[in-house]
Design goal:
It is built from 15 helices and eight strands.
Length: about 400
């Protein structure tokens, strides 16, 4: 089915001088949209059969040429929209009016470019993955921002689940990233309605956070590994993180000796998606941490870095360079931690981030109050800490049950 284009006069809009406006009616799939041509004439000059202005009008040649060009332009627009699979009577009329809704993917690309300039490399990569999934759904590189309606978002959610095979929490994260783009477009007044004001994203499934007990931490500490090997260093990285409130791997890599002052560890936490205003951490070093640092101060080379991870002479101020190297090193350390878990007879799947979970678990078991734990982990609010610790309630329950019998 092709669109139809018909010129007609609006007798219901006759003005005081007896002039009526000429309109173009675009019909497609039984839906109609009207476009005012900008021409007004007396009714007697309109030929409804030929759809043109009669010769008796002094300017009939010029006006009929304008109408002919208008219909041709509408047909060309309809042809292009059909190729883009965006054909509708409304879209044709909108284009005639000069309303050209921004391509979502073009806007999202600009959004990702801004993330790069902000240094949010990982967030940009995650957003790019999301955009590729969306392109798979629409099977095109063109999608108007206004087409992202609540119903469209529900369809995308179903597509992620059924066609991509994403798990619930992955879908939640993708919808959160998509919301950030639409929030940005709404704030910049590129769109006048935000579909996420109506759409309700699926609930996040509470995942079980793995954590080691203090006994398992001690089993790792007791391991006698060959000094100077990669697995030896990875053991120290993991333990140092545990003893210092779960310092993240990206922050540990960047630690330099000038971060150690007066027996305290002071460092600026790296920015993350939810942490746009990084905080300074100031932790008093305990004996276990000082023991680990003692090894590295004795074997210190000319490097300013505490741990032998990053290379001197490389400009890590470029976010993409640092993010790529950090990811590579983290993967290597996680491989080492699997070997360490096997040597310590620990069945729990260990990654570097488990050191953070393990610290939170141990702190809760030792009776540290939630506010103190939240401060140590540098969470932005207590609710985050509550969710974090909910995974370890079973330890506290076990302890309480033991006291009952």
């Amino acid at each position: 089915m092709k669109p139809s284009y018909n010129l007609f006069i609006r007798r219901d809009k006759i003005n005081s001088q007896g002039h009526v406006p000429l309109y173009l009616r675009v019909t497609y799939n039984r839906k109609k949209s009207l476009y005012f041509t900008g021409i007004k004439i007396e009714q007697k000059y309109w030929n409804p059969d030929k759809k043109e202005i009669r010769r008796s009008h002094t300017s009939y040649k010029v006006l009929n040429h304008e109408l002919e060009q208008l219909v041709y332009e509408a047909q060309e627009i309809g042809f292009k929209l059909d190729k883009q699979k965006k054909l509708s009577s409304k879209n044709i009329v909108d284009r005639l009016k000069g309303v050209n809704p921004e391509n979502f993917f073009t806007y999202a690309k600009k959004y990702c470019d801004r993330l790069d300039k902000m240094g949010a490399v990982r967030r940009r990569k995650q957003t790019t993955v999301l955009l590729n999934k969306l392109k798979r759904m629409v099977q095109a590189d063109y999608l108007e921002l206004t087409e992202l309606t609540p119903a469209f978002l529900e369809d995308f959610e179903i597509f992620l689940r059924n066609n991509i095979g994403n798990a619930q929490n992955t879908i939640v994260k993708d919808m959160e990233r998509l919301k950030m783009i639409m929030d940005d477009a709404f704030q910049k007044e590129v769109i006048d309605k935000n579909p996420f004001d109506v759409y309700r994203k699926p609930p996040r499934q509470q995942s079980k956070k793995e954590a080691l007990s203090i006994e398992q931490i001690l089993d790792i500490k007791k391991l006698d590994l060959e000094e100077g090997t990669r697995v030896f260093h990875s053991k120290n990285y993991f333990l140092f993180s545990f003893y210092n409130a779960g310092i993240r791997f990206g922050d540990l890599c960047r630690l330099k000796w000038d971060n150690i002052q007066d027996g305290r560890l002071r460092y600026l936490m790296s920015k993350s998606v939810n942490n746009t205003n990084p905080k300074w951490k100031n932790i008093r070093l305990n004996d276990q941490s000082l023991e680990i640092l003692g090894y590295y101060i004795k074997h210190q080379n000319e490097s300013d870095y505490i741990f032998p991870l990053l290379e001197d002479g490389v400009d890590y101020s470029i976010p993409e360079v640092y993010d790529r190297e950090k990811s590579r090193l983290n993967s290597l350390v996680n491989l080492d931690l699997r070997k360490i878990a096997e040597l310590a007879n620990i069945e729990t799947h260990i990654s570097f981030h488990i050191s953070r979970h393990s610290f939170a678990r141990h702190a809760a078991n030792m009776g540290m109050n939630m506010y103190a734990i939240s401060n140590a982990l540098a969470h932005s609010n207590l609710k985050t800490t509550q969710t974090y610790l909910k995974n370890f309630d079973e330890d506290l329950l076990d302890r309480e049950m033991e006291q009952l019998f």
